[in-house]
Design a protein that fits this description.
Low-confidence stretches: 1-21
CATH architecture: Sandwich
Mean pLDDT: 94
CATH topology: Immunoglobulin-like
Shape: globular
Number of strands: 21
Bound molecules: heme C
Number of domains: 1
Oligomer: single chain
CATH class: Mainly Beta
Helix content: 10-25%
Largest sheet: 8 strands, mixed
Structural class: alpha+beta
Distance between the termini: 39 Å
Strand content: 15-25%
Number of helices: 11
Length: 435
């Protein structure tokens, strides 16, 4: 009783001195009063920046000149997606049974402090895609178990397809040339993982730009950061030139809600695309759970909370699997009597691990029910970080969306053409002003 009184006193003091009002829980927004925009997201296969400008694409000339995809592809998402998802010249590794199109329902509202997003889509599977690769004990050592479905080991049946569902938002404020017309295709290039002319680890490590970045693979980048006409991955500008582009706002916001690696702590990650797909300063709420020296897990499940120290294959899809420092994880004990088939997640979450600009999306919640994800998301307006695109009343932005569904990563997503979103301004999607 006494403790309770003390606690409530402490709470009212905290409320008095809390400073700016706490953000509104995005779940309490009256979403019934906010119009819904339905977008058809489609499977793009390997339609890279370079392919779109090649003789194989009838629209090459217009695309090279900066023209809009929708000049020729208006209302063709279903046709494109259903064709490209099957084996064809742009899809050398089709995934059996994959759907070509996903309908996304998107709503936007805002008040003085935040923008609020709500996104809904149906999943192909009759379960929440919240599992992610594990490490499995084989009697001797811990080896990765579960891979995304474009990987050869899954396509050959040697490994199960396990990868988290994701929902990504890209935002341009008009300062990325051609994004309004060509959207995320500006960032999708030959050399990237699962794309044509995949750049090997050795090739990437030999490249000066990637040496500076300390990265071993090619990921999304903007053509403005390359020196040649076709924006080749290996023709990077100097760090000084790239820093100038960033300072002038020539980068894209890229935020990803992740069913395994961010949702359990109520977050989405916060990143941006410039010369690479980069994380905002402060870091993500997740990190590797594998010790690079011992190749053993760093954390295991807390038996008191989960009922066991590790899972087995039969547990996947039957229970949430995320390992969360603040909730259900304890340091790994190498002498805990591990058995062949024991599984521990390959990543560990830590809400406190994301700080500063990297922790901006800390009010995001996704729930899966009856075959559908529903996400609600609050994003502060007027952010002043150098790696964010601040959302401001009176402005129009170009948004583009991606959904990763059914255990897949890289280009195995369904994507949208770019669409304008206005906050108190004319646009294809006009955010509803809340009282
Ligand atoms: C000037 C017209 C034009 C523009 C602009 C254009 N395209 Fe195309 N594109 C075509 C035509 C014509 C085809 C042939 C197949 C068809 O009719 O859909 C095609 C085919 C494609 C295909 C392969 C589909 C298939 O059936 O194999 C993809 C993917 C594609 N375009 C994406 C894009 C994207 C993305 C953009 C913008 C960056 C774009 N196109 C801009 C005219 C255009």
């Amino acid at each position: 009783m006494k403790t309770f009184r003390l606690a409530s006193l402490a709470m009212s003091i905290a409320t008095l001195f809390a400073g700016p009002a706490l953000a509104v829980d995005p779940a309490t927004v009256n979403w019934n009063s906010v119009p819904t925009k339905t977008l058809n997201l489609f499977y793009p296969a390997q339609s890279s920046y370079q392919w779109l400008r090649s003789a194989d694409h009838p629209g090459a000339q217009v695309v090279t000149g900066g023209g809009a995809c929708l000049t020729c592809h208006k209302d063709t998402e279903e046709k494109l997606g259903n064709k490209l998802v099957k084996a064809n010249k742009l899809e050398p590794t089709p995934v059996e049974g994959k759907n070509g199109v996903i309908q996304l329902s998107f709503q936007v509202a805002y008040d003085k402090e935040n923008a609020y997003f709500r996104a809904q889509w149906k999943t192909r599977n009759n379960y929440a895609g919240d599992a992610h690769p594990f490490v499995r004990f084989n009697g001797k050592e811990w080896k990765t178990y579960g891979f995304p479905k474009l990987d050869a080991v899954v396509q050959k049946g040697e490994q199960p397809g396990i990868y988290e569902d994701r929902f990504s938002i890209m935002i341009d404020d008009g300062r990325v040339p051609e994004f309004a017309n060509q959207g995320c295709w500006l960032t999708c290039h030959n050399g990237e993982r699962d794309n044509p002319k995949f750049a090997t680890r050795a090739e990437v490590q030999a490249n000066p730009l990637y040496q500076t970045l300390k990265q071993n693979d090619v990921r999304k980048y903007l053509p403005s950061t390359r020196t040649d006409g076709l924006a080749s991955w290996d023709k990077g500008k100097t760090s000084e030139e790239i820093a100038k582009i960033k300072a002038a706002g020539g980068f894209l916001e890229l935020m990803q809600w992740r069913a395994h690696r961010s949702n359990p702590v109520g977050m989405a990650d916060d990143g941006y695309v410039l010369e690479y797909r980069l994380s905002d300063a402060g870091g993500n709420p997740f990190g590797s759970n594998v010790d690079p020296k011992t190749h053993q897990p760093r954390f295991m499940y807390d038996e008191k909370k989960v009922g066991k120290k590790a899972l087995t294959a039969g547990d996947i899809r039957k229970m949430p699997t995320a390992l969360v420092r603040e909730q259900n994880a304890v340091p790994f004990d190498p002498n805990a009597g591990w058995k062949e088939g024991d599984l521990i997640p390959e990543y560990v979450l830590n809400k406190e691990g994301a700080k500063g600009s990297g922790a901006d999306n800390n009010q995001v919640k996704g729930a899966w029910k009856d075959g559908m994800w529903t996400l609600v998301w609050a994003r502060k307006l007027n952010l002043a970080n150098p790696d964010d695109k601040p959302l401001k009343e009176g402005n129009v932005y170009n948004f583009a969306f991606a959904v990763h569904d059914d255990n897949i990563t890289t280009r195995g997503h369904q994507v949208s053409f770019p669409v304008t979103v206005g906050f108190g301004a004319k646009a294809a999607i006009e955010a509803t002003r809340l009282k």
